[in-house]
Model the fold of this input.
Amino acid sequence: MLMRSIILIFLALIPSVMYADGTIYLSDIEPLLKQQPELWTSITNSFDLRDVGVAPRINVRESQKLDGYRIAPYTFEAKRKGSTGPFIFEIEIQAKTRYYDSKGKEVSVQRAAKLKEDFEGVAIQMRPQADIDAEAEFLRNPNKN
Done:
């Protein structure tokens, strides 16, 4: 009985996580990228990006209708255009996410039936050195492990 009480208290104290990361294809956010075509062209002219990235994923506890939707920020690994080495950068596409009910009124995510994202910006940073090193090692020895 004591153990059951401890578990229940523990579960009650764990904060509900609204989002967990999920994978997303670069092509899935094309409408968002088309909001700033000149900026996006400059980025793709300078970097090679992985086709698959990560983004926060809306949880069913937050919205049954939007469960599984990915929202900004979207993060993709990148490297200098034409580089043969590891992907050493992370490019984060930022957007303002707004939620709407079925009548088009802006509402909270819990009451939303759809969402809309407005492009806000891009952040470029180095990936953690340990990740870069691990990828470089894999590129040198792809059959190891």
